[in-house]
């Protein structure tokens, strides 16, 4: 096995006439009179390796009868390919069968539906489509680490189990060792969490932001990249119950600084994918053609976004544009109400056709920690929030400058009926060396959707968790 080369390496490095060993999964076998062709894929790259086996090779009968999905290793000679579109192929001399697959293997024919593949999420990564998506996902993850590292930010692993609700939206999954029927109760009949494992009511984190703020106040700039959990009952193509978020947090920075950071980060994601995943992006284009899905020259669009400035406007300006647009929206755009997906997509796709950064939302729409703007008309108070909206997806980033005044933050927490006690440590940041700071959260799956052009968030995460579904 030590001599095994990935197919990617064979294509990029092997010379005609050299010896090579490849190992992978059989996509198809085509039998001729005196030889057979095996199409082999090992996931290392988009391209398959064509293997030719002559009938004088040991166990030829068994080898040439292998079915799709079987795993084999082949040692042979790299030769020029007769087939079109391929430079080289492998003339196999020795074949090891690692594991056969029989005719019940679910991924038999081309063009299997996305729904069917979701039901077979344990196998779908063996298709060209999901191979492409997950190699691009990897590129975007590496680009994230490289980008923030190069900018001088430190990678923070924020906790997954927390005792607070960072977004204050109440969309949390509980973490408890109590048996639901036998949980101890206090005098008021409420579950007594003081007797639970952590001695308090705990949940899965909806965000790592509050902890990132703590570390930004010591390290200057940090970013998290981890799983986050939301129990919102949104059965849409853009929501998951478990998703990954990238949350940079920057000390001595305001909203404009992080808006700029956000656009540079998104451009980096795009440029790395364009540079490293051309075969994958080409395949996705081809796949959309087969599926009769509008491609809209996706790669050109990505190049255009990489090279253009993002449009920045305030929420108030956005409402004005939407109101005057003449579009028939399901929800009427109204000052004071959070933008709906249809509004976000209108702005990003139809009106500007580049990513849009909307800033300064009404205070009532946003989380407790956002910096309050001053000198505003009563009832028209706004906060230094931003959402980044991209064509095809809508909101990809949510962020803000943070409230750095202790008194303002305290009164906002009280106003919103939140528990101040739980956040004592967060308030401490405003007591000891408080500084202007800002950050944002990028929904990683939404970024993968954006770059790949996939339309359903369930198709860009390995094993999606959504309402009524936690298989695998
Ligand atoms: O806008 P959100 O809720 O912002 C925060 O959580 C802040 N604490 C971030 C920060 O300032 N550090 O979420 C950020 C992003 C959204 O823009 C969206 O892309 C994604 O996370 N997101 C989801 N992605 C998939 N499924 C869900 N249920 C999501 N909820 C949010
Ligand atoms: Mg948001």
Q: Which stretches are poorly predicted, pLDDT < 50 over at least 5 residues? A: none
Helix content: 25-40%
How large is the count of helical segments? 13
Strand content: 15-25%
Average pLDDT figure: 95
Quaternary structure of the protein: single chain
Count of separate structural domains: 2
Which CATH class of the largest domain? Alpha Beta
What summary fits the major beta sheet?
8 strands, mixed
Terminus-to-terminus distance: 30 Å
Strand order of the largest sheet: 6-10-11-16-15-14-13-12
Q: What's the count of strands? A: 16
CATH topology of the largest domain: BirA Bifunctional Protein, domain 2
Structural class: alpha+beta
CATH-scheme architecture of the largest domain: 2-Layer Sandwich
Please identify which CATH superfamily of the largest domain we are dealing with: Bira Bifunctional Protein, Domain 2
Structure description:
Helices cover 31% and strands 24% of the residues. The chain is α+β, with helices and mostly antiparallel strands and 472 residues long. The protein folds into 2 domains: 7-99, Nucleic acid-binding proteins (OB fold (Dihydrolipoamide Acetyltransferase, E2P), Beta Barrel); 126-171 and 206-459, 2-Layer Sandwich (BirA Bifunctional Protein, domain 2), CATH 3.30.930. The strands form 3 sheets. An 8-stranded mixed β-sheet has the order 6-10-11-16-15-14-13-12, sandwiched between helices. A 5-stranded mixed barrel has the order 1-2-3-5-4. Strand 14 and strand 15 (394-401) form a beta hairpin. Helix 4 packs antiparallel against helix 7 (278-290). The longest helix has 23 residues, at 128-150. The protein binds 4-amino-1,4-dioxobutan-2-aminium adenosine-5'-monophosphate and magnesium ion (MG).
